[in-house]
Amino acid sequence: MNCSNISIVINTCLKVDRSLKQKLSCIWYNDRPRYFHSSRTVCQTQKDDVEVLLSPQEVTVILRKNEFNKDFPHGSVKSYDSNQLPSNDPIEDTRCEAQCKMTPGLIMGVFDGHGGPACAQVVSKRLFKYIAAALLPQDLLQNYIKQEPRELLIDTFNDRVSAEIIQDLKVIYDKSFNEYLDKLSNCAKDEVDVKVSLEKGIMHLDEDLSREVVEPFKENGTLNHKTLSVALSGAVACVSYIDGPHMYIANVGDCNAVVGTMTEDNEWIAKKITKEHNTENFDELKRIWNEHPEEERKTVIRRDRLLGELAPLRSLGDYRYKWKAEILSEVAVPLIGQKAIPANYYTPPYLSAKPDIYYHRLIPKDKFLIIASDGLWDMMTPIQAVKLVGEHMKGKVFFNPLKLPKKNIQLGDINELLLHRKESLKSKPKDRNAATHLIRHAIGGTEYGVDHSRLAHLLSLSSDVSRMFRDDMTVTIVYFDSEFLRQCPA
Ligand code: MG
Fold first, then answer.
1. What mean pLDDT is reported for the chain?
2. Distance between Cα 382 and ligand 1 center (Å)
3. Is residue 401 helix, strand or coil?
4. % of the chain residues with pLDDT over 90
């Protein structure tokens, strides 16, 4: 069977039987000889029916395309590595990392969109400002509101989401943000509670996504299709806020945050901070069943999905599961037809953006935090990811030139340093960026290490086929400074 035939089979099976994935993988990987050809960028079939794979260099170019990393000169966060690999076209995952400008603290988040990229794009561009404003104590907030022009609330490091929609809706978004600031100023306090601020930022932004559609419609019958596309698509979010040894994680949906910790015996352990909001989380199921009448028990969760449709049980946007049926009839049905109202839709809202917020006091043994979308966690467990990043840390030393730690160092110490470096060379990773290292292993990993042909095949698939094998992947790894944490007062 040649490459294009396989694609047809996969396409045909896409709607038929997902369990065929495994069988198709076997056909795909095991039945023919493979050759590498550096000038081809997609999987092609030559006349002699020999499949041409992406070369190792081409694979690496694809894997590294969205890499980003940044070092910090002081504080509990030493640096971070981030990367993402699309499966959907366009990618529905987004990410954002920023420094608060008027208060201390770094905010980093991964967002996984569904039903189109609009909501995840908008949330990644707007949310951190909402959070940073909620983190301002009373006096700073009042000063900020009076400023003309206003200084930036956040300094964003890796702003690559090209969201035309944000530019088009700028006036609407600025108006919403100003109204939000007024609401904040009415209840601002001198003492800021980070957990409350994170929840406020997320919930207010989610309410604004709805208000931006419904208010103009009620006032003068205007329906803006762009604000509507944002409100009808959805996004889950996992956001960390780190200030010194204090780490908070706000989670809505099914992304996850995991801390990699080194034990006394130099073993890695994975501390999973978050709990996904999906049907595997029994507390979530109980919550949803309790929020709706007994008669809906069989319909509110069907086929492991909310109302038989949506996999995450909390999210931003997704107003098809939040608005009353009358509003859906007025604003969504004209655009997408009767299917806009899910079956068995009796007692909305069925969905909420309320985050679970976790606090974790960082200790010197906590070496890094991994935040990633389910695209990564579908492929590896938290402990697998932690061990891979741990090994990567050990080998990464080789990417940096040898630096002697102090003046007047003894020859014996230099010898020891060089021996340690020589030992590390054995585990030198292929990728400098640990997020790429994880993605490479997630896609190409086998019991015997990374398999090039597996990687090359999966990266050659068109997005409609690729989506069968894997999801969009977004990974951000935040490294902690153990020395800084050691010196933090208890
Ligand atoms: Mg996903």
1. 88
2. 16
3. coil
4. 75
> Hey, which bits of 284-362 come out as E strands?
301-302, 305-306, 316-317, 356-361
Distance in Å, CA 31 to ligand 1 centroid: 31
What total number of domains does the chain contain? 1
Please indicate, yes or no, if residue 346 is contained in any of the structural domains.
yes
Closest CA to 213 of 175, 172, 252, 167: 172
How large is the average pLDDT for residues 78-85? 98
Query: Is residue 315 included in any domain, yes or no?
Result: yes
Using the predicted structure, report yes or no on whether residue 162 has a pLDDT greater than 80: no
Tokens of 486: 């050691």
Let me know if residue 138 belongs to a domain.
Answer: yes
19 CA → ligand 1 middle, Å: 19
Give the predicted TM-score (pTM) of the model: 0.86
Mean pLDDT for the stretch of residues 191-202: 96
> Per-residue pLDDT for 227 more than 80?
yes
Measure 373 CA to ligand 1 centroid, in angstroms: 6
The alpha carbon of 297 and the centre of ligand 1 are apart by a number of angstroms equal to 27
Best CA proximity match to 251, nearest among 371, 366, 115, 349: 371
Query: What strands lie across the sheet with 34-36, from one edge to the other?
Result: 34-36, 51-53, 44-45
Tell me, what's the pLDDT at 426?
66
More confident residue, 265 or 15: 265
Q: Are the C-beta atoms of residues 354 and 314 closer than 8 Å to each other?
A: yes
Check if the beta carbon of residue 159 is closer than 8 Å to that of residue 99.
no
Confidence of residue 452 (pLDDT cuts 50, 70, 90): very high
CA 400 to chain centre: 28
pLDDT of residue 117 exceeding 80, the answer is yes
How far, in Å, is the centroid of ligand 1 from the Cα of 313?
14
Per-residue pLDDT, 396: 67
- Cα-to-centroid distance, 160 and ligand 1 (Å): 19
Question: Phi and psi of 292, rounded to 5°?
Answer: -130, 155
Q: Please check the confidence at residue 30 and state whether its pLDDT lies above 50.
A: no
98, pLDDT greater than 90: yes
Determine, yes or no, domain membership for 182. yes
Domain of 137: which CATH number?
3.60.40.10
Please give the structure tokens belonging to residue 19.
């369990």
For residue 200, the one-letter residue type is K
Question: Ligand 1 being an ion, which residues bring their Cβ within 5 A of it?
Answer: 112, 373-375, 471
In angstroms, rounded to a whole number, what is the distance separating the alpha carbons of residues 314 and 350?
A: 9
Parent domain of 103 = 6-33+83-238+272-361
Report the residue count for the chain: 490
The whole-angstrom separation of Cα 25 and Cα 15 is: 17
- Residue-level pLDDT at 160: 77
Three-state DSSP state, 52: strand
